[in-house]
Q: What sequence folds into this?
């Protein structure tokens, strides 16, 4: 699983943001299932920043978010992210490294039409790991 959160950061706030984003990444990296992460800034737009992390599964990422250190050091940074989708399933990667090629989506067949809490939709069990 790949998590990419983008941020708008003013010139006056970039040093503070970088410090906070590094602390967030450090807290996330200590959690089981964390693979790698980055803090970066757009080369063509210095006010646009990114905090990205890769996880072995959706479940590992969700469990990481409940860790005390992540709640105190990473979640406050995450709240500052632009309001846009940030979680992506990895369908392929090169080089294959430790996970090899991905067999395809693990999303439920109705994932594009059923939302969380949709009372009209039948319950569909999903494997988070």
A:
């Amino acid at each position: 699983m790949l998590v990419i959160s983008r941020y708008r950061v003013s010139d006056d706030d970039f040093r503070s943001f970088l410090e906070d984003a590094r602390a967030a990444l450090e807290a996330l990296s200590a959690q089981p299932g964390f693979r790698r992460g980055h803090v970066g800034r757009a080369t063509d737009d210095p006010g646009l920043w990114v905090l990205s992390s890769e996880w072995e599964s959706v479940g590992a990422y969700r469990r990481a978010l409940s860790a005390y250190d992540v709640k105190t050091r990473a979640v406050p940074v995450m709240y500052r992210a632009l309001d846009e989708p940030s979680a992506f399933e990895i369908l392929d990667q090169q080089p294959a490294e430790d996970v090899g090629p991905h067999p395809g989506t693990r999303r439920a067949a109705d994932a594009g039409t059923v939302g969380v809490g949709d009372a009209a939709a039948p319950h569909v069990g999903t494997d988070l790991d």
Notes: The chain has a mean pLDDT of 84. The first strand starts at residue 2 and ends at 8.
